[in-house]
Amino acid sequence: MKNEDAFATIDLTVLPVPADTHGPVTRGMFMVLLEEKTPADPRLSSEKAVDLVDGAAHLVPDLDAYIVKLKQELRSKDEYPQTSIEELETSNEELRSAHEEMQSVYEEMQATNEELETSKEELQSVNEELATVNSEPQTKVADLSRANGDMKNLLSGTGIGTVFVDHLLQILRFTPTISALINLIESDVGRPVDQIRSNFVSYDHLAADIHEVLENLVPKETEVQTKTGEWYFLRIRPYRTLENVIEGAVITFTEISVMKQAQESLQDFRNPSTTGSGGAIFTRRSPRA
Fold it and tell me: Is the pLDDT of residue 236 over 90?
């Protein structure tokens, strides 16, 4: 130990003090002896050591038992760190195992995240394809609407009355011109054609002619006259789809009043009525007579 400016060697002795039930000494006290060590005869040091041991023996009556107890306590203290080390190693193993499990869970979550990213990309691709597929029907609907408009304007512009019926003779659609021949309105779509009153003279078997055409698939043509005197060329034909499937019939009415008038004029010319001078007399019938 350092003593002022110099260093000195000392003897340090620690001895347990036994408890005195009748004195001031209590359990768990120790005696600490500090003695400066001076160069001396080894025998003197041995004598001092013997004196100290004797003094310790005097303080501790049962020294052997006390030494055994100290050894047991020392062994317990030696075993305690070993037990703590083993418990610590066990805890480290458990922590290492838990860390490995967490690492495995993290890797699984990372793999799941990658799968979700892939699924998200696939879903986005599917959505784009669906958007493309959805745009195609919209384009087709727009084209079909335009085609229907063109067809309607075409049929209306020709002045030909047209009626479309199905296998049950139910009216599917018709052109405005037909209203002068058959009393049709928009609410009549879906009604059988034989339930609609017509303006024809001596022609009341339209439904039978349509049935005949649907059975034989042979077009039928005839001339009919309205109650107001107009003549129409009636044509009934099977309605064929683009796949050549029969889905009903098409009835068209083409006005031929001028042609009928020309025929009657020609017939009058061939069979003239004389008026004294032998001249021929031609008559003209009004189409709206």
Answer: yes
Q: Does 154 lie in the same domain as 256?
A: yes
Last residue of a domain, one of 42, 61, 80: 61
Structure-token match 């001031």, residue found:
24
Q: How many CB atoms lie within 10 A of CB 268?
A: 15
Secondary structure of 236-278 in HEC code, one letter for each residue = EEEEECCCCCEEEEEEEEEECHHHHHHHHHHHHHHCCCCCCCC
Domain boundary among 44, 61, 78: 61
**pTM higher than 0.70:** no
Residues 56 and 156 in one domain: no
The domain of 57 spans: 2-61
Q: Give 36-47 as a DSSP string.
A: E-----HHHHHH
Report the length, in residues, of the chain: 289
255 lies in some domain: yes
Domain count, the chain: 2
Q: How far apart are CA 176 and CA 60, in angstroms?
A: 136
User: Does residue 52 lie within any of the structural domains?
Assistant: yes
Q: Is the pLDDT of residue 278 over 60?
A: no
CA atoms within 13 A on the CB side of 3: 7
Mean pLDDT in the chain?
80
Alpha helical stretches, state H, the chain: 42-59, 63-158, 206-216, 257-270
> 1-26 pLDDT, tens per residue?
877 777 888 888 898 877 665 656 56
